[in-house]
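Supplementary notes for students who missed Thursday's class. We covered one full example, reproduced here. Read the sequence, then the structure, then the short commentary at the end.
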Amino acid sequence: MALGNLDEIYRDDVILDHRRNPRNAARLKDADIAADGVNPFCGDEIHLQMRLDDGGRVAEVGFQGEGCSINQATGSMLSEAIKGLTLPQVEALSAKFHEMMQGPEPPDEMLTALGDLGSLSKVRDFPVRIKCALLAWSTLEDGVAAGRG
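Structure (token representation):
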């Protein structure tokens, strides 16, 4: 793994856009699934809400977060990526994101298939920041698991 410059991540156009203009920022009332995540080591926070349609697909997402740009951008990208997916598809996407962040070097095809989320693969070069990118996904997984429980 070649180590890069952390400033490159913070200058990435996709990451900056999602940080500056977070998608789905409104808190959903009467959500079917809601979860909150906090990284106590750095203070990053994620708050997610999802409303499902009658077919069990994610119809609406609410995302609010505080903390670093990576955390904020990831939450925003996640909120866009899961719309229209069933819960099993959400779990599969989450597994794919975890694989990108923690598995072997992701192939270009995987990064392309992940869309905006693929831009976060650069975070792999900074192991201490991987948790920033995974907080939203871990929070999502907790919410889906609790929603099924």
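Commentary. The chain has six helices and three strands. Residues 6-148 form a domain with the Sufe protein. Chain: A fold (CATH 3.90.1010.10). If anything here is unclear, bring it to office hours.
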